[in-house]
Amino acid sequence: MTHADDAGFDRRMLEALVCPVTHAVLEYDVERQELLSRNAGLAFPIRDGIPVMLLDEARRIAD
Question: Where on the tree of life does the source sit, at the highest rank (predicted)?
Fold first, then answer.
């Protein structure tokens, strides 16, 4: 299992980020290094510790 510190992602940043579609709170998936918006059904990647909050970069997730 990967830890947030290993990936360079600051979990405190999660408090400031919301889904660009629904404006809802995001969940952090440590294993996949993604931020999940369950309401929108999207997962936003984290690359080099930086969340990529672009719809074109998000992947669809199943409910």
Answer: Bacteria
Read off the CATH number of the domain in which 32 is found.
2.20.25.10
What amino acid is encoded at 20 in this protein? Answer: P
What are the tens digits of pLDDT across the range 5-40?
A: 445 677 787 888 999 999 999 999 999 999 999 999
Residue 50 to residue 63: CA distance in whole angstroms: 25
**52 in helix, strand or coil?**
coil
Q: How many domains, in total, are found in the chain?
A: 1
Tokens of 22: 């629904």
pTM over 0.85: no
Q: Note down the domain range covering 19.
A: 4-60
